[in-house]
Specification:
46% of the residues lie in helices and 13% in strands. With 423 residues, the protein is α/β, with parallel strands linked by helices. Bound molecules: NADP nicotinamide-adenine-dinucleotide phosphate.
Length: 423
C-alpha cells in the first residue's frame, strides 16, 4: 500500500514475527522511523538487517516492570500498533490461572501500558496521533479452546472504544482491526485441525482466510491520514426513486466493476408527524434503489465472471436514535443489514460489499439538519474528536474499500464518525 509516513515515528509491538514483522517492513518502506518491540532478540536482529535504521527493543510485554524500563523513555511516537499477543489453546474447563494471567497481561494489560506511555507523550507534545489495536474475529465469533484468548480480544474491542472516547479530544484516533485466520505461526496453530479449518473457511463468504498483507494494509490505512484522487466520469441523469426510469437509464450501462451507492434523502419530521410521502420517498431512494442498482451491477459482474466491489454510503444514524430522524435512521439501519446480506450472497461470486457510516458532514443534507448551533453543539459534544467529518474523510475511506487493499473486508460497516459510535 503506497502511503507516505515520512517524518513520523511508529512503534509496533510483536514485531518479531507474522503480522507485526510485516507491519514494520511496510511502515519502514513508507518512510516512517520505526521502534520494533518484541521478545526474541534473534527476530529483531534479522529484522534490523532487513530494515536498516529501525530501533529494536527486546522486552517481554507481559512483564510490567521490564516494559516500563524498556519503553518509559521511548521518546516521541506518532503511530502505535498494539499487535503482540499470545494464543494459548486450552479447553475452557482446563484453563489455568497461569493461562489466564499470561493471556491478559500480554494481550490486554500491555495495550493499556504501552498506549498510556505513547498517548501521554502525544498529549505533552500537543500533537495528533493514531493507535491501531490488532484484535481478532474471535472478539465476535467463538472459537473452540480459545476462551482466554477470545476474552482478551473481546475486552480489546471495548477498550478500543473507551480509548477513542477519552483520547479523541486530544486528536488521538484509536481503532482496531479484527482479522479472520491468517496463516502465521499463530494462525497455523489455531486452525491446525483440518476439518475445523475447512468448515471455518466455508463460513466465510469469500471462502478464504486472510493474507498477512490484507491485515497490514488495513493497519496502515487506519494509521494514515490520507487524501484521495479522482479520474474521469460518465454522467447519467435519473430519479432513483423511479424504478422504471432507473431500469431504463442503467439497463445499458455496460460493465461496471466498482459501485458506490451514495444517493439518499433525509426528511426531518417528529415521529408522530411522519408522512407516507416522506416514508415512501426515503425508502425508495435510500434502500430500494440500492437493491435495484446493485442487482444491475452484480448481475453484470457475475455474467462476465469478474470480481467487483460495492460500497453503500450509510450513516452513524443507522446505529443510534436521532431526534426527528426516525425514517432516515430506519433506512440506514436497513442499509447496514442489507450490506451484510449482500456480502453473504455475493461473496461466492468474488463481489465484496461494505458500508461507510459517516457522522454529520456539512453537505447540503448536513446543513439542513445541523446548521442550528445549539443542535450542532449537542451532537458535537457526543463526538470524541469534537468535530463533524469533512467531505474528504468520507471520500478517503471509499477508495480504500473499493481497492484491493481491503480485499478481505466484506460485510463490514466502517465508521467515519470521529468516534460517535464508540460512545
Ligand atoms: N494469525 C491469525 O490467525 C490472527 C487472526 C486474528 C488476529 N490475530 C492477531 O494478530 C496479531 C499478530 O499475530 P500473528 O499471527 O502475527 O502472531 P505471531 O506470528 O505469533 O507473532 C506474534 C509476535 O508477537 C510477539 N510477542 C508475543 N508475546 C510477546 C510478549 N510477551 N512480549 C513481546 N512480544 C511478544 C511474538 O514474539 P515471540 O515469538 O518472540 O514470542 C511475535 O513476534 C496478534 O494480536 C493476534 O492476536 C492473528
Amino acid at each position: 500500500m503506497q502511503l507516505n509516513f515520512s517524518g513520523l515515528r511508529a512503534l509496533v509491538t510483536g514485531a518479531g514475527k507474522g503480522i507485526g514483522r510485516d507491519t514494520v517492513k511496510a511502515l519502514h518502506a513508507s518512510g516512517a522511523r520505526v521502534v520494533a518491540v518484541s521478545r526474541t532478540n534473534a527476530d529483531l536482529v534479522s529484522l534490523s538487517k532487513e530494515c536498516p535504521g529501525i530501533e529494536p527493543v527486546c522486552v517481554d510485554l507481559g512483564d510490567w516492570g521490564a516494559t516500563e524500563k524498556a519503553l518509559g523513555d521511548v521518546g516521541p511516537v506518532d503511530l502505535l500498533v498494539n499487535n503482540a499477543a499470545v494464543a494459548l489453546m486450552r479447553p475452557f474447563l482446563e484453563v489455568t490461572k497461569e493461562d489466564f494471567d499470561r493471556s491478559f497481561s500480554v494481550n490486554l494489560r500491555a495495550v493499556f501500558q504501552v498506549s498510556q506511555i505513547v498517548a501521554r507523550g502525544m498529549i505533552n507534545r500537543g500533537v495528533p496521533g493514531s493507535i491501531v489495536n490488532v484484535s481478532s474475529m474471535v472478539a465476535h465469533v467463538p472459537f473452540p479452546s480459545l476462551a482466554a484468548y477470545s476474552s482478551t480480544k473481546g475486552a480489546m474491542t471495548t477498550l478500543t472504544k473507551s480509548m477513542a472516547l477519552e483520547l479523541g479530544p486530544y486528536k488521538i484516533r484509536v481503532n482496531s482491526v479484527n482479522p479472520t485466520v491468517v496463516l502465521t505461526a499463530m494462525g497455523q496453530k489455531v486452525s491446525a485441525d483440518p476439518e475445523f479449518s475447512r468448515k471455518l473457511k466455508e463460513r466465510h463468504p469469500l471462502k478464504k482466510f486472510a493474507e498477512v498483507e490484507d491485515v497490514v494494509n488495513s493497519i496502515l490505512f487506519l494509521l494514515s491520514d490520507r487524501s484521495a484522487s479522482t479520474s474521469g466520469s460518465e454522467t447519467v441523469c435519473v430519479d432513483l426513486a423511479d424504478w422504471e426510469a432507473t431500469e431504463q437509464a442503467l439497463r445499458g450501462v455496460g460493465p461496471v466493476d466498482l459501485l458506490v451507492n451514495n444517493a439518499a434523502v433525509a426528511f426531518l419530521q417528529p415521529f408522530l408527524e411522519v408522512t407516507k410521502e416522506a416514508y415512501d420517498m426515503s425508502f425508495s431512494v435510500n434502500l430500494r434503489a440500492v437493491i435495484q442498482v446493485s442487482q444491475i451491477v452484480a448481475r453484470g459482474l457475475i455474467a462476465r465472471g469478474a470480481p467487483g466491489v460495492i460500497v453503500n454510503v450509510s450513516s452513524q444514524a443507522s446505529q443510534r436514535g436521532l431526534t426527528n430522524h426516525s425514517v432516515y435512521c430506519s433506512t440506514k439501519g436497513a442499509l447496514d443489514i442489507l450490506t451484510k446480506v449482500m456480502a453473504v450472497e455475493l461473496g461466492p461470486h468474488k463481489i465484496r460489499v461494505n458500508a461507510v457510516n459517516p457522522t454529520v458532514v456539512m453537505t447540503p443534507m448536513g446543513q439542513a439538519a445541523w446548521s442550528d448551533p445549539q443542535k450542532a453543539k449537542a451532537m458535537l459534544d457526543r463526538i470524541p474528536l469534537g468535530r463533524f467529518a469533512e467531505m474528504e474523510n468520507v471520500v478517503d475511506t471509499i477508495p480504500f474499500l473499493l481497492s484491493d487493499h481491503s480485499s478481505m473486508t466484506t460485510g463490514s460497516t466502517v465508521p467515519v464518525d470521529g468516534g460517535f459510535l464508540a460512545t
